[in-house]
Specification:
With about 150 residues, this protein is of the alpha+beta class. The protein is built from 7 helices and 5 strands. Strands 2-3-1-4-5 form a 5-stranded mixed beta sheet. It binds FE2/S2 (inorganic) cluster (FES). FE2/S2 (inorganic) cluster (FES) binds near residues 81 and 119.
């Protein structure tokens, strides 16, 4: 459940004009780690802009997510080279230790775990990317140590 007062506080920071929409959506993303439905609805009312337009912006911009995301994103490369070097074991370790399914977010909102295709660093396989940081030759037994610094 999101804080509706926070939604209004963000909206009130800006001019009531369509040009403010993207900046407001970005602030929603920063505050809630995604763009919540209630935020889009409120924005639509206040700005008198169709909700469909706001939704379209939410899906168009890559930096915005319409589903809850963790504070940190863990991408496990499951491309061929990484798969051959143990990506599955890394994923299984993360799922077990963080109690989360792949392509979803932990209950505490800390981490989103995603499977991705080749991230272009096959020489370092298997590769795990946490936020913008690349970790090569990741061993399943060590992946939880990597996460400690993001807690
Ligand atoms: S397959 Fe993982 S980096 Fe290329």
């Amino acid at each position: 459940m999101i804080d509706v007062n926070k939604v209004d506080e963000i909206i009130n920071r800006y001019e009531k004009s369509e040009e403010s929409l993207l900046a407001i959506l970005q602030d929603f993303q920063r505050e809630f780690y995604y763009v919540p439905e209630e935020g889009m609805r409120r924005l639509s009312e206040v700005m008198a802009v169709p909700q469909s337009k706001i939704y379209a912006m939410g899906t168009f911009y890559k930096a915005l997510s319409l589903t809850l995301r963790g504070k940190h994103t863990i991408k496990v490369c499951t491309g061929t080279a990484c798969h051959l070097k143990g990506a599955t074991q890394i994923l299984e370790t993360l799922e077990r230790e963080l109690k989360v399914k792949r392509n979803s977010t932990t209950e505490d909102g800390e981490f989103t775990v995603e499977c991705v295709n080749c991230v272009g660093a096959c020489a370092m396989a298997p590769v795990t990317v946490v936020d913008e940081d690349y970790y090569g030759q990741t061993r399943a037994s060590k992946v939880m140590d990597v996460l400690k610094k993001y807690k």
